[in-house]
Write a structure and sequence with these properties.
Elements lengths: L23 H4 L27 H13 L6 E6 L6 H12 L7 E5 L11 H11 L11 H12 L5 E7 L2 H4 L10 E6 L5 H5 L3 E4 L5 H12 L1 H6 L1 H10 L4 H12 L6 H10 L8 H4 L1 H12 L3 H10 L6 E3 H8 L3 H13 L4 E4 L2 E3 L2 H11 L4 H26 L22 H24 L3 H9 L12 H18 L2 H17 L3 H9 L10 H13 L3 H16 L4 H17 L3 H18 L2 H17 L3 H16 L5 H18 L2 H17 L5 H16 L4
Parallel strand pairs: 1-4, 1-5, 2-3, 3-4
Antiparallel strand pairs: 6-8, 7-8
Helix pairs in contact: 4-5, 8-10, 8-11, 10-12, 11-14, 15-17, 15-18, 16-17, 16-19, 19-20, 19-21, 20-21, 20-22, 21-22, 22-23, 23-24, 23-25, 24-25, 25-26, 26-27, 27-28, 27-29, 28-29, 29-30, 30-31, 31-32, 32-33
InterPro entries: P-loop_NTPase (IPR027417), TPR-like_helical_dom_sf (IPR011990), TPR_rpt (IPR019734), WH-like_DNA-bd_sf (IPR036388)
Protein name: Tetratricopeptide (TPR) repeat protein
Pfam families: TPR_12 (PF13424), TPR_7 (PF13176)
């Protein structure tokens, strides 16, 4: 009887459309037999330096942790106004207690307030599940199923879940643990009163700092000697900051960096500033607004311009090259300005040449940016959005070489990052993911429709990530379809509707996906074959193998008319996957042979290697171990030639090890399994089951008598 390991994975690899929208190159997956360990996620950001005060709230969290952990799903809600220090407090406290949660700490910024849309709970669940060891292609697409799996995984673990910056109770509810031993801490500007009823949450409110706490923070930043030299001025500075820790830190940092200034000088200048009502005073209060404005007016002209223009950046996290384009400056000037802003805590560094801005300061920067001319505002936004679209296209071509694309002409508006290979392209996309989402929305609002098309067409990278973001991709594709129709671009409309339909399919919205693909079956669509490839994928995901085969066979003659080798290879590969599922192995091998030739013609190196993997699984399922080993080794060699696909290398090592076991070469099988386990560990993927299998095979190899 044949070995089925690896076979069940083949259907999930079938490509829905010729553009490879599902990112199957990265998602070819690892068979379930290869992974079963439970990693321990530690996702907390670094704690704030010189954290001060909040003793009552820290004690309250300690009491909740100590008294209520036997209950089902302990939940605490920290609420308070923006800038009051909720994130600083929860991060400080969570670092103190995370050793009491041996199975991990999950953290997410839900983006409830700021320029970006709040995170969809489904996106968060996908990230949490992969953090807990679920393979990305095994994360349920249906939100309720994902939430159920999340709760099931937490049932036997002690995990702390930190949900920062929540918008609503509805956003939070699917992310809460419901079993003893786990705890969730939620922060929000809203009290989220629904959670007190539905989740028996404990409310802990953060008020503005009192004078004692504000004074303590001032001491922590400025030092005791300097504060005690001007006690009255220090007290007045505290009063002007109106109890908002963010304002205290801004003012204190400015003074700390200028030893020649007296605290009294700063107090006098803040009092002299006269502010118009510009839309932010209602969020922070007039006194705090005075501190923001005073900090801004003290900046030199170039850093002030950069701060102002950051208000037009689509997100609150940004790289130095993007800011250079936004502001029309060179990299040296931009670096100098960003360092000056970071020194004053107007922005904070998160990585080399990468910064984050508090959403209140981002809103304040935008009010200052409105003082620039409308032409300057328009030009700044167009520059930065064009830069993101241009770099996204460059990265997309590296991730998807030879795949269909819109091939839009997007101007180069400044230096671009060095993207030499798939790995660097994916790293750029990963870092910029939230910004690209916001950029697509902003481009649509400002009617930069061609830029929206570029950002939407390259959003397929979202499923190349270790934590696929299907709902975000759906959102961006919707923006793209709107832009295509505004431009009357029928080709772009068909391209994006195909991608949109495949995303719906991956989310388990079968009827909508089927309707979307069927709408592509029209004489106006020159690529009608995409309708049938897509419908075949929908049937595969539902286990309707014969219907899937019928669709793929309908696609074949339509695709042949276009002579696109890669598209024909996709169809042949999908037909092979269906045949394997139906146990028709000889027919599968015939499809695979045709697929391999077509992949070679198209220059699709990954697909060519993958056809060998597919052939190995078909041979293995029939018990043909020697040819299966030969195909597995050829797949492994093909994957190793390409950068950025170590996950596929590891998977091929596992398959080859299985073949080696069957032919009796246990020593090599153990070696391959050890290498696979090392790769999974390096990729931060579960590796315990592979290690267990390696130990078992090693023991058998050791006990095996020498020939």
């Amino acid at each position: 009887m044949g070995d089925q390991r690896g076979v069940s994975n083949m259907i999930s690899e079938s490509e829905t459309g010729p553009a490879g929208r599902a990112g199957n190159i990265a998602q070819a997956g690892v068979s379930a037999s290869g992974q079963g360990g439970a990693p321990v996620p530690r996702q907390l950001p670094a704690p704030v330096r010189d954290f001060t005060g909040r003793g009552h709230q820290v004690a309250a969290l300690d009491r909740v942790l100590g008294n209520d952990m036997t209950a089902y799903g302990t939940v605490a809600v920290l609420d308070g106004t923006g800038g009051v220090g909720k994130t600083s407090l929860v991060t400080h406290w969570a670092h103190r207690v995370q050793d009491q949660f041996p199975d991990g700490t999950l953290f997410v910024n839900l983006r409830g307030y700021g320029p970006s849309e709040p995170l969809d709970p489904a996106v968060v669940l996908a990230g949490f599940l992969t953090g807990l060891g679920v393979l990305q292609d095994q994360v349920p697409a249906e939100p309720d199923a994902a939430a159920g799996l999340f709760r099931s995984l937490l049932a036997s673990r002690r995990v702390l879940v930190v949900l920062d910056n929540a918008a609503t109770a509805e956003q939070v509810r699917p992310l809460l643990p419901t079993t003893a031993g786990c705890m969730a801490v939620v922060t929000s500007r809203d009290s989220l009163t629904d959670l007190f009823v539905s989740a028996s949450a404990h409310r802990i409110s953060l008020d503005l700092f009192g004078s004692v706490e504000s004074y303590a923070l001032l001491l922590a930043v400025l030092g005791r000697v300097r504060v005690e030299q001007e006690p009255d001025a220090a007290s007045e500075l505290v009063r002007l900051c109106a109890g908002l820790p963010l304002a205290v830190r801004l003012a204190a940092t400015w003074v700390a960096l200028r030893p020649q200034w007296r605290i009294a000088d700063v107090v006098e200048e803040i009092k002299e500033d006269q502010l118009a009502d510009d839309g932010i005073s209602g969020m922070v209060g007039e006194a705090v607004q005075a501190v923001f404005d005073w900090s801004y007016t003290r900046l030199a002209p170039e850093p002030a311009q950069v701060f102002r223009f950051l208000g037009w950046h689509p997100g609150t996290e940004f790289s130095m090259p993007a800011v250079a384009v936004l502001c029309g400056l060179n990299h040296r000037e931009t670096n100098r300005c960003l360092e000056a802003l970071a020194e004053l805590h107007l922005i904070e560094p998160v990585a080399r040449h990468r910064y984050r801005m508090h959403d209140l300061l981002h809103a304040f920067a935008r009010t200052r940016a409105r003082l620039d001319t409308s032409d300057e505002q328009h030009a700044a936004r167009e520059r930065v959005l064009t830069w993101y679209a241009h770099v996204a296209q460059l990265a997309d071509r590296l991730l998807y070489p030879g795949f269909p694309s819109l091939d839009l002409e997007i101007d180069r508006v400044g230096p671009t990052p060095t993207l030499e290979d798939r790995a660097r392209a994916l790293a750029w996309f990963t870092a910029e993911q939230p910004t690209l989402h916001a950029a697509a929305r902003t481009a649509l609002e400002w009617e930069f429709h061609t830029l929206v098309l570029a950002l939407a067409a390259t959003s397929r990278f979202l499923t190349y990530l270790s934590r696929p973001l299907w709902t975000v991709r759906l959102d961006i594709e919707t923006f793209g379809i709107t832009a295509a129709r505004a431009l009357g671009d029928l080709a772009a409309d068909f391209f994006l509707r195909e991608s949109h339909s495949e995303t719906l399919s991956m989310l388990g919205r079968w009827e909508e996906a089927e309707a979307g693909f069927m709408s592509l079956d029209t004489p106006r669509n020159p690529q009608r074959y995409t309708a049938f490839i897509g419908l075949g994928g929908v049937h595969c995901k539902q286990g309707h193998w014969q219907q899937a085969r019928d669709c793929y066979q309908q696609a074949l003659p339509l695709a042949r008319a276009h002579g696109l080798a890669r598209t024909l290879a996709v169809i042949e590969g999908n037909l092979a996957a269906v045949a394997i599922r139906l146990g028709e192995y000889e027919q599968a091998l015939a499809h695979i042979e045709r697929e391999r030739d077509l992949r070679h013609q198209a220059g699709d190196q990954v697909g060519h290697a993958h056809s060998f993997y597919r052939a190995a699984t078909a041979q293995l399922a029939q018990g043909h171990h020697a040819p299966a080993l030969e195909f597995a080794e050829r797949a492994l060699a093909g994957y190793r030639e390409l950068p950025g696909i170590d996950k596929l290398v590891a998977r091929a090592l596992e398959l080859a090890a299985t073949c080696l076991e069957h032919v009796g070469d246990l020593a090599r099988a153990a070696d391959y399994l050890q290498r696979a386990a090392t790769l999974y560990t390096d990729l931060e993927l579960p590796a315990d089951a592979v290690r267990k299998r390696w130990r078992e095979v090693t023991a058998r190899a050791t006990a095996q008598p020498e020939a």
